[in-house]
Amino acid sequence: MKYEIIDFHTHPYKNESDCICIHPTVIKRSPSEFLSDLERAGVSKFCGSVISFEKKPDDVSWWDYIKPLNDDALKLKEFYGDAYIPGCTIHPDFVEESILEIDRFIKAGVNLIGELVWYLQGYNTNCSQNMKKILNYASEKEMVLSVHPTSDDDMDKLCETHPNLIIVGAHPLEGEKFNRHIERAKKYKNYYIDLSGGGIYRYGATRRLIDEIGIDRILFGSDYPISNLQMYVDGVKNDRLLSEEEKRMILSENAKRILNIK
User: Fold this and answer.
1) With contact defined as beta carbons under 8 Å apart, do 131 and 165 qualify?
2) Which of 11, 23, 29, 241 has the fewest CB atoms lying closer than 10 Å?
3) DSSP 8-state code for residue 239
4) Average pLDDT of the residues of the chain
């Protein structure tokens, strides 16, 4: 069966040299090739923030480091057209600047923040008073927050503090981390899970997520080009434990609903 696929979790880049794949000596993809890889795997739309693994220079502020990545994301939206839904990066040390960035992305027709990758962006909690101000504004504007999880307690507090904000946690992983994702989703109905970066490689993990929290809050994500895109697509499409309707919901329908995609 042919499925519509929306990859909720990718990290595009403006130049081939900026590709954040883990093995660049064997995988060097231009922005055009990035798109062709997605299309070859059956992905029609993809989401996510532009991030960098390059260390911030000491004489550059975190905002001057982040702002160009947001600029690149919006330029890539022009390049990819409707296929790309860029994610806005914000920072708790820059409240006014972050709010203006949210407005800039809204003006571009986007309601997605992140994936926020805090350990690359100079902070370690999404529950500071400054971040609370930014996310209160994001909630008022009906944004969706994609976040690389901080500590489990911090993530629980984030969901509790912003009950009207859709919060999508990436990388459900396994073991106790996986269990805490499930516990969080059971307790906080605004918490969603995307399957990227360790979400489905343990057999039965996706089935258990559905059984424990329901089908409506599970999103397909690959973390491409860091993770193997085709493995994630096949891992959902060919999972014998999932019904056709469940596959359809995970691969596209849930993302379309929260991102207001017609």
Assistant:
1) no
2) 23
3) -
4) 96
CA distance 169 to 218: 10
Q: What is the pLDDT of residues 189-241, one digit of tens each?
A: 999 999 998 778 899 999 999 999 999 999 999 999 999 999 999 999 999 99
Cis check: omega of the bond before 31, within 30 degrees of 0: no
Backbone angles phi and psi of 154, in degrees to 5: -65, -40
| Residues 17, 15: Cα–Cα separation, whole Å | 5
pLDDT at 3 over 90: yes
Residue 1 scores a pLDDT above 90: no
Distance CA 4, CA 43 (A): 7
Residues 6+ apart with CB under 8 A from 4: 44, 248, 251, 252
* pLDDT value for 201: 85
User: Rounded distance, CA 38 to CA 225, Å?
Assistant: 10
Measured distance CA(108)–CA(235) in Å, rounded: 33
Tens of pLDDT along 103-142?
999 999 999 999 999 999 999 999 999 999 999 999 999 9
Rounded Cα gap, residues 40 and 43, in angstroms: 7
SS3 letters across 132-184 = HHHHHHHHHCCCEEEECCCCHHHHHHHHHHCCCCEEEECCCCCHHHHHHHHHH
Contacts of 100 (CB under 8 A, 6+ apart): none
Please name the amino acid found at residue 147. V
